């Protein structure tokens, strides 16, 4: 793993909400810390209501993690474009995040520990 990336299981119950809907809850969240960037909470795909997510064509590349694919969050009150990312085939150094989703937080998307 790149020296500046750390992945750890975080304790407790974590939730992600958007537009008043709970998109996911998990006790199996991972926290990825990368250099000076704020830590990001990753949710297991199986703990997220995928019916709220629409796959987009956006793909970005990180030299330390690989290619990220994106989803928009669609609910009754809003659409949050490309608000979710996932590394479906991450580099070996960060293989732990395979099958996990991360969320850009905003006014309409909240990730929190309960």
Automatic annotation (TrEMBL):
InterPro entries in the record: DUF427, DUF427_sf
Residue ranges constituting the DUF427 domain according to the UniProt record: 15-105
PANTHER family from the UniProt entry: BLR5716 PROTEIN (PTHR34310:SF9), DUF427 DOMAIN PROTEIN (AFU_ORTHOLOGUE AFUA_3G02220) (PTHR34310)
Name this protein carries in UniProt: DUF427 domain-containing protein
